[in-house]
Amino acid sequence: MNAAGTRAEDLCAELLQRAGLRILARNWRCRLGEIDLVAEEGATLVFAEVRLRRDASYGGAAESITAAKRARLLAAARLFLAGRAAADCRFDVLLLDQLAPARIRWIRNAFGE
Predict the structure, then answer these.
(1) Is the pTM of this model over 0.85?
(2) CA neighbor of 45 nearest in space, from 65, 67, 29, 25
(3) Which of 8, 27, 83, 113 is deepest in the core (most CB within 10 A)?
(4) What DSSP string runs through 43-87?
């Protein structure tokens, strides 16, 4: 990951912590993909995807979450949950279009029904 991506994840982790979430893992990797941040909010497990796009030539941060990316996140989360006690979970997306000053758009339950 490049320095800008690392900084974006740092900023998002800080935002989640200030909001009362507890970070459990960062850049959790498995054979199916990677989850940027795994956190707990009360009894809910939160899988958070951080997207930074400083150049809108190829679309903004939100447009970078394709159906294929979403499928990889869901598959990785299933593997993360394997062997763990059942828990409520959700997928949040944190979008940044710039780093300085950081403007983070936090979409809770981005993949929810």
Answers:
(1) yes
(2) 25
(3) 8
(4) TEEEEEEEEE-S-GGG--TGGG--HHHHHHHHHHHHHHHTTSPP-
